[in-house]
Sequence to fold (311 residues):
Amino acid sequence: MDAIFIGEMLIDFTPGQQPASYIRNAGGAPANACIAMARNGLTTGFLGKLGNDDFGRFLKQTLQDENVDVLCPELTNEAVTTLAFVTLYENGERSFTFARKPGADMLLASSDVDAVDWQNTRLVHAGSFGMSQNPERDATKYALKRAKECDKLVSFDVNYRDTVWENQQACQQEVDSILQYVDFLKISEEELDFVGGEQNIPQFMDQHHIAVVIETLGSRGAKYFFHGKEGIVRGHRVHAIDATGAGDAFWGSFLARILMETAIQTPDDITEELVCKALEYGNAAGGLCVQKMGGIPALPTKDEITAFCSR
Fold:
C-alpha cells in the first residue's frame, strides 16, 4: 500500500442546528489524513484501536467504506471508543473536550505493530496525540522506528492538544524522542516552540536530519523549509464554516501529491518544485474542507481538488 497512518480514530461530536445538540462524525487527525489520502486514489491502512461498541463499529465501517485497510480489525472490550466534543466559534475555529479516561485509541500495543507488514508500504505517518499515554505512546515510537529501519518515508504531525497532556514540556519530550525517524514534519504557527522558533528551523532540520518542514498558516496557506530554502504557498479565500479536519485534509492531500510521483522512494528523491506543487494541492484540499461541516464528511476527493486548483 502507499501509506500507513497510526494513532487515534474517534467520534467528533460537532454542533447541530438545534441549541445544545451534537452530530456524530468520524474523526481523529491520523484517520482524517488517512481518508484524505484514500480519497485521492491512493491505497492506505489505518493502525489504531477502536472500542467494541456502537461508535467503534461505526468507525470501522467508515474506514472500510473509504477503502482503507483496517490494520487493527479486532475491537477492544477494555475501553470505549474515544469521544471528542467540538465547540465552534464565529471565525470557523474550534476547541475540543475529550472523553478519554481511558479511550480505546490509547490501547494500541507493540504486538499490533508487529502484525503489520512494514515492507508493504511507502510512507508511515503519526502524530503526538497518540503519544500522550501508554501503551499507545511506546507502540507509536516502535512503529516509527520499524518504518525507518525498513527505509520508509516517515511523516509526523506535532498536533499539540493541551487537554490530553500534562503540559507542553511533556509533549515536547516525546516529540523530540522520535525526530530521528522523521522526514516530513508538520507544525502550526502555535507550535513553533517545538522547533525553537521559526528562525531556528533550518538548524533544527540539520540537527535531526529532517528533509521537509511545513508550517501551516491557516487561511494564509503554508510555509515550507527544504534544503536551506523556504517559501510561502498562499491559501485560498473561502467562507469558512468549520475548520475541523482542515489541517488533516491539507496534510493527507499534501502527502498524497508527493506519493503520486511514483519515483519518490527516499528523501533524496524530493525536490523543491514538488514540495511547492504538493502545498498548492494541499491548500486547495484545506480550502474545500472548511466550507463544509464535520471532519471526514468534509474531506474532498481528487476530482474536487483538481477542479478547485484549475479555477
Remarks:
- The radius of gyration is 18 Å.
- Residues 8 and 105 are 5 Å apart (CA to CA).
- The mean pLDDT is 93.
- The longest helix spans residues 272-289.
